[in-house]
Amino acid sequence: MIMDRRRQRIKYILTDYTAAFVTWLLFNVLRFHETAHYDFASLSDFLLYDQVLKGQILIPLFWLALYFFSGYYNRPFRKSRIGEFFTTFVTAAAGSVIIFFTVLLNELPRSFHVYYELFFALYAIQFVLTYAGRAVITNRSLRKLWRHEWFENVIVVGTGENALKTRDELYRLGYRVAGFVRENNSDTATAVDADEILGTADDLMTIPENRNGDGIVVAIDGGNKGDTVRLLYSLYHYKKPVMIIADKNDLFFNMKVKTIHGIPLIDVTENNFSEFEKNIKWLMDKVVSLCVLLLFSPLYAYIAMRVRMDSAGPVFFTQERIGYRGKPFTICKFRTMYADAATQGPLLTAREDRRVTPFGRFLRKYRLDEIPQFWNVLKGDMSLVGPRPEQRYYIDRIVQKAPYYYLLHNVRPGISSWGMVKYGYAETVDEMIERLDFDVLYYENMSLVLDITILIYTVKIVFTGKGV
Q1: 397 neighbors 365 (Cβ within 8 angstroms)
Q2: Which tens digit of pLDDT belongs to each residue from 338-350?
């Protein structure tokens, strides 16, 4: 059967919750004997005390929140047992410190060393029970992978000897090759049976669903390195993880390599964001966008009134853009052009564009036309920081000269971007490609620090009026 990520994730969550619940119950028994037995007649009275009962409910939820933001649940399959040990070790320590200083420090024990006993007891019980439950699930899933009871479909690009060798290696790791595709239309000899060949790389979009893979593995024989790069660029279009077998002579050797049981696989579509950073970025997007929508609602109302007074037409301008994984969504802005401007077809805005209204020019200067997009962020279409989303019309023209543009669809588009901060608005496709260099640089160096830096520069642009 194909791996069910949702079911596996639920197993980890339930196991972690049970471990946290039992840990806190056992810890409360210890607390009673060390700090609370003076104020309660019996252990049952202490355990049924309102504050203790409240903690019995909230503390396990706190642990789940901590594990969520640590990124533990992001990838429920193919976990490393060693990595899982250290992840649990660190998060158990961090959570125990937080609980100690927020819940336990105000209690008065009979002697100071009891604080140490309580802390290390909480940490030890939490770690042992949590790791034990996780280890059972992880070991069971690894056995199912090795026995091929679970698998993940992939499509191999290549039909030569290297492709056959790669299939054997992938099978050993719990992958199932759904089929092979040629890297081009050449009639070179193949080592793969004809009935296993699904077509060429250009046919990936038309492969039937039952043969469609969850990822793409490139395993071509030799060839020009420039051709390999162009092939990888073309595969970004399919919005799936693209992996390549690392080789010491390969130009991708300097990229981040994930070694699985001695077989180095490079995911060339993966960015540098850790799972922890991804979750913090998600939380920051939701909190900031909600605060902006609520706190700046009077500003929204004022701008809406001025847009209506400035020229006839709707307050908001909506347009389809291409977002995460190539999914279309409707972007929302305050209208800055005359209502009939859209009838002229897709056109980029020039610096002295006559289609822009007087108040629209002011909005664009201070980037205030963009603030309705916080609703897009709250819905999950966009992020605060990320490559700017484009219309499909312009994407089709950009990729003719810069096919690596598709790589940017692996992250959510943003209200602000490194390209908008360093380059600004683009008036031609060539300028969009020049700005693209900054967005690719952002993608390759993504971090929370860089996101915050871009937000600071964006605020500076808003207050200085350098948006145009």
Answers
A1: no
A2: 887 666 556 666 5
